[in-house]
Amino acid sequence: MEERRRLVDKSKRDVMTAVFLKSEHVTCETSDKGKGFLFDHRSGYVYLLNKTGCYIFTLFQEEISVEEIIAKMSKKFNIDSSVISEDIHNFLSEVGKMKLVVRYD
């Protein structure tokens, strides 16, 4: 159990320094109200995004690390970075499974 916890902790540290980019086959559009959608040209699926999801995809365009994204979100929304960190990891996991983002190393 302890070994697994160490592997999970290392995996999260690795993700913190990683840079994620929007996949080439994905278009991100936002409205003037901050909400938006992703269109996956390969599958034809459309994914609706709330303001937070749109903001994260905007930050992906800056080619900054996950750690920097968390810091910016913490400052913008005045939320503790540990709370945002868990949410970002969950978000990355979901959009990663759908191949909407790619890890850029």
Describe the structure.
- With 105 residues, this protein is α+β, with helices and mostly antiparallel strands.
- The chain has one domain: Outer Surface Protein A, domain 3.
- 52% of the residues lie in helices and 21% in strands.
- The chain is built from four helices and five strands; from the N terminus they run αββββαααβ.
- The chain has helices at residues 2-17, 51-60, 66-77, 81-97; strands at 19-22, 26-30, 36-40, 46-49, 101-104.
- Strands 2-3-4 form a three-stranded antiparallel beta sheet.
- It is globular, with a radius of gyration of 14 Å.
Q: Which regions are unreliable across 5 or more consecutive residues at pLDDT < 50?
A: 3-10
Q: How confident is the prediction overall: mean pLDDT?
A: 86
| Helix fraction by DSSP (H/I, runs of at least 4) | 40-55%
CA radius of gyration: 14 Å
CATH C-level label? Alpha Beta
Shape: globular
For the largest beta-sheet, the strand count, sense and barrel status come to: 3 strands, antiparallel
Q: What is the terminal separation in angstroms?
A: 30 Å
Count of all domains: 1
**Number of separate helices:** 4
Strand content: 15-25%
Q: How many individual β-strands?
A: 5
Order of helices and strands: HEEEEHHHE
Please state the second-level CATH architecture. Answer: Alpha-Beta Complex
CATH topology: Outer Surface Protein A, domain 3
Spatial order of the strands forming the largest sheet? 2-3-4
SS-derived structural category: alpha+beta
